[in-house]
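STRUCTURE:
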């Protein structure tokens, strides 16, 4: 699917919906345009390559593979690969989605195999006044897309913080089970992936913010620096969350040790109570003349009553000491 807008030399803005529209916008002098290719057909990209003269390897990267974020500079444009988070349905799972872009003086071409909410948002914004949006330059549209993607990074980091707080609450419960270890391991894995991606994107934007590319205006350099700051905040927050994850494991092991100690304490008390009873039963069971005499019918009940009294005295003593 092809979407986009063009601004012609007379100031009018028109939507783009086909390769023919792109060809008309490209051949007219002093026009600028942004074309977005969502789930593109190979034939459309090959036609675009031949029309504008795009690098063949870069076009192939748009169609296949998941390359690391990078910028390649060519004579007439720069090629950039970035990753966004979340599609139109805003999934909760970590699922980076690649966006490739060709940015020149007059044109911006964005290509992505999966829907991206950020791109849809910028398209809707341009639809209200395409001529005004493109009059600011196609690099401003590229900035709006990247800035929106980074905002999603912040949103995911905040969501992971909420998950971590829930896990911390569970880890303090004495009834916590080992499933919390699996949940914390999954969260740690997602945090590592988010940090790696945010770090790559921040390094990617460093030369852009420093004005090393002619296709990004000086007015946008400071804005890209702010995007870098947001990525740094994400990285710092992820590092903090990773440190707090260690506390969850410590809380779980502490709760496990407390439960084990409570069980051992209970078993020890029962063993202590049974020890004198076992001694009495063993002593009375010996084949020796004892009192009360074994041949007396009341002897059994008398010894049993004595054992009950001993057990009751021990239980009372333990309760008085608050061991029970």
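SEQUENCE:
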């Amino acid at each position: 699917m092809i979407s986009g807008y063009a601004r012609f030399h007379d100031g009018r803005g028109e939507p783009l919906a086909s390769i023919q529209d792109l060809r008309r916008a490209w051949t007219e002098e002093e026009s600028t345009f942004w074309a977005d290719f969502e789930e593109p057909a190979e034939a459309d990209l090959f036609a675009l390559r031949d029309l504008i003269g795009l690098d063949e390897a870069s076009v192939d990267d748009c169609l296949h593979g998941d390359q690391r974020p990078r910028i390649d500079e060519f004579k007439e444009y720069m090629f950039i690969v970035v990753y966004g988070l979340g599609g139109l349905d805003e999934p909760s799972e970590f699922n980076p989605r690649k966006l490739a872009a060709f940015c020149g003086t007059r044109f911006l071409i964005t290509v992505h195999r999966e829907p991206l909410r950020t791109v849809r948002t910028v398209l809707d914004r341009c639809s209200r006044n395409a001529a005004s949006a493109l009059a600011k330059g196609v690099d401003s549209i590229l900035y709006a897309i990247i800035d929106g993607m980074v905002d999603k990074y912040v949103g995911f980091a905040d969501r992971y913080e909420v998950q971590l707080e829930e896990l911390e609450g569970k880890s303090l419960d004495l009834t916590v089970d080992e499933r919390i270890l699996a949940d914390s391991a999954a969260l740690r894995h997602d945090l590592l992936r988010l940090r790696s991606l945010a770090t790559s994107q921040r390094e990617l934007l460093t030369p852009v913010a420093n004005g090393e590319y002619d296709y990004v205006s000086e007015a946008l350099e400071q804005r890209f620096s702010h995007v870098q700051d947001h990525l740094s905040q994400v990285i710092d927050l992820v590092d903090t969350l990773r440190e707090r994850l260690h506390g969850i494991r410590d809380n779980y092991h502490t709760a496990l040790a407390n439960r084990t100690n409570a069980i051992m304490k209970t078993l020890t008390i029962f063993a202590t109570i049974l020890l004198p009873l076992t001694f009495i039963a063993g002593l009375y069971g010996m084949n020796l003349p004892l009192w009360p005499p074994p041949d007396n019918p009341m002897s059994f009940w008398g010894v049993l009553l004595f054992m009950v009294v001993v057990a009751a005295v021990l239980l009372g003593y333990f309760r008085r000491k608050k061991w029970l």
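REMARK: The beta strands are 2-7, 13-15, 32-38, 70-73, 77-85, 96-104, 107-112.
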